[in-house]
Write a structure and sequence with these properties.
Layout (H helix, E strand, L loop, with lengths): L1 E6 L2 E6 L1 E6 L6 E8 L20 E3 L4 E8 L4 E6 L1
Antiparallel strand pairs: 1-2, 3-7, 4-6, 5-6
Length: 82
């Protein structure tokens, strides 16, 4: 998932991602899920995170997102962000 565009002399690129978690066990499960988005060291490049599902704890300095996930037997959850 991605989209690009130009605004004046600036270029904007959106990248979308989806995490899928499934509990294949016959009992419920609770876990911590973490992911990290890339960060830029160049001040002319900015990176922002927009969660489309769930509400992750997000650290702008490290780019780490954290979710607390509770899954029933056979349940699947999807987390989308861009």
């Amino acid at each position: 998932m991605g989209k690009s565009g130009t605004i004046g002399s600036s270029k904007k690129t959106n990248k979308g991602f989806e995490l899928v978690v499934r509990n294949n066990k016959n009992k419920g499960n609770e876990m911590n899920l973490e992911n990290q988005i890339p960060l830029s060291r160049k001040k002319e490049v900015s990176v922002t995170m927009d969660s489309k599902t769930g509400n992750p704890e997000y650290d702008e300095k490290t780019g780490i997102m954290k979710w607390r996930v509770k899954l029933e037997p056979g349940e699947t959850v999807k987390y989308q962000f861009q």
